[in-house]
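Quarterly update from the structural biology core.
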Amino acid sequence: MDYTTDSAPYLSLFAAVSYGVSSMAMVFINKAVLMQYSNSMTLLTFQQLMTTLLIRFGRVTGYTKARGFNIETAKKLLLVSLFYNANVAFALASLKGVNIPMYIAIKRLTPLAVLIAGFFYGKGKPTTQVYKHCFA
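Predicted structure, tokenized:
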């Protein structure tokens, strides 16, 4: 694709707005599904399956350049994947228990809590740029 410099700001704005809309829609859809069905692990499994299919579809159509499945890479990413799945499972469980504005507020403050905990555990003081990013 050939993008001119005149259209680049509009594409960036479109990407940002699209991300915001899809992020908010995902929270509302997840909340609606969780209110209708009590088993959040089914929702998690469905989301992972759809992500896998979309990545595969993107590879087949040439839209993305993701590498194929590799057992060595899968072994290296196993622990990270388990922690990610636990994070998503806990997020869905918390979304089930609180209202949407409270969920969003807590989710947005999580990185700040991690930075503060890291500071107290001897990881050092994060730069002011990191704090600005957390509050943005």
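The mean pLDDT is 80.
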